[in-house]
């Protein structure tokens, strides 16, 4: 509980660059649990040797796992880094996550980056066993002199897409689909609700949650996301924002089927959505996991990593909103006005419900 409280204090999910090519031939190291979705990093590089442990959903979620991959790929290109990817299995025990990190450490990978708060206790444990290695965790609150917690202020970006929803809704009813209620996803919901209310006090925000724990039902369940979003649309919402990882694909399916609007999360999801869904994606709340992962890799190469929390907010361009598709071009000035007020401190965005 103490660790979750620490997460809530600083965090609760750019177009993807995964498809870019390095100058030299690329391949992904093969090992048990490693990704086989195509080369991510160059082989034989002289830079950092990055071990990347994915969260539920893995690479291909078009969300924060893919963003971590994008940051790692950029490190391959700019820092001559090599890497090995390792994916989480559905419903695996905590011991499997620990062993995944140990396997990367024993294979000589340094630094090691874990994606997702579920790795918090595992990173704390394994980092103590390998004090000479550097570890980072996205969205976590791990402890250790050799651990960097890459944290975000997702409530700030969520506030801005809430402003967009509040201005664009025609029914004064909007919705939110969250993976699991708690300190990681609550900031998205709280910021979104605050943004909607700031510009449209008459609007209501209905929320649905996909699971009561961070499992496959929460973040890798597109059918569940579609069912939840459809219920919100049927109840009068005309815009639904999701913070549910891969489950959000179902939200976009529902938006297209119901001829309504949806809001993406983490990456600019308009860019990776099927063409028949793009016109139904109003915007996305950006969470620049790619930037944080790349910055950590660069700091490792420069010998400047620091233990503790490294927080990415609006002021650092660590969160924000997407404009692809042009549907919010007419209200961008209003959204940016709120952005300036958040950066200046005039507006304090809530991160709890």
UniProtKB/TrEMBL annotation:
PROSITE patterns: PROKAR_LIPOPROTEIN (PS51257)
Pfam families noted in UniProt: Bmp
Region (Disordered): 23-47, 78-99
InterPro entries in the record: BMP_lipoprotein, PnrA-like
Protein location: Cell membrane
Residues annotated as domain ABC transporter substrate-binding protein PnrA-like: 56-351
Domain of life: Bacteria
Major subcellular site: membrane
Signal peptide from the UniProt entry: 1-22
Cellular component aspect of the GO annotation: plasma membrane
UniProt biased composition (Basic and acidic residues): 78-87
Keywords: Cell membrane, Lipoprotein, Membrane, Signal
Protein name as catalogued: BMP family ABC transporter substrate-binding protein
Species the sequence originates in: Nocardioides panacis
């Amino acid at each position: 509980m103490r660790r979750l409280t620490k997460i809530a204090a600083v965090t609760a999910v750019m177009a993807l660059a995964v498809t870019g090519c390095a100058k030299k031939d690329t391949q992904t190291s093969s090992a048990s649990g490693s990704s086989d979705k195509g080369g991510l990093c160059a082989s034989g590089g002289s830079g950092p040797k990055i071990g990347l442990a994915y969260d539920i959903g893995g690479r291909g979620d078009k969300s924060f796992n893919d963003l971590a991959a994008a940051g790692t790929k950029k490190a391959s290109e700019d820092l001559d880094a090599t890497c090995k990817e390792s994916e989480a299995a559905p419903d695996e025990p905590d011991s499997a996550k620990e062993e995944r990190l140990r396997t990367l450490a024993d294979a000589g990978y340094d630094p090691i980056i874990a994606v997702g708060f579920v790795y918090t206790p595992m990173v704390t444990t394994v980092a103590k066993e390998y004090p000479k290695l550097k570890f980072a965790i996205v969205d976590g609150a791990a402890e250790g002199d050799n651990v960097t917690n890459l944290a975000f202020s997702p409530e700030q970006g969520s506030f801005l897409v809430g402003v967009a929803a509040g201005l664009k809704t025609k029914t004064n009813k909007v919705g939110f689909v969250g993976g699991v209620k708690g300190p990681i996803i609550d900031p998205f919901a709280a910021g979104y609700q605050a943004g909607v209310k700031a510009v449209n006090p008459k609007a209501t925000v209905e929320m649905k949650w996909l699971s009561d724990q961070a499992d496959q039902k929460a973040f890798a369940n597109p059918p569940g996301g579609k069912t939840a979003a459809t219920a919100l649309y049927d109840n009068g919402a005309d815009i639904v924002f999701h913070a549910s990882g891969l489950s959000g694909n179902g939200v976009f399916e529902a938006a297209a089927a119901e001829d309504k609007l949806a809001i993406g999360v983490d990456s600019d999801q308009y860019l990776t959505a099927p063409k028949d869904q793009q016109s139904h994606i109003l915007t996305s709340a950006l969470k620049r996991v790619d930037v944080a992962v790349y910055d950590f890799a660069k700091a490792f190469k420069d010998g400047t990593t620091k233990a503790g929390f490294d927080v990415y907010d609006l002021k650092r361009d660590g969160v924000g909103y997407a404009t692809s598709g042009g549907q919010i071009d007419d209200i961008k000035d209003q959204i940016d006005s709120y952005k300036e007020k958040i950066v200046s401190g005039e507006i304090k965005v809530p991160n709890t419900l």
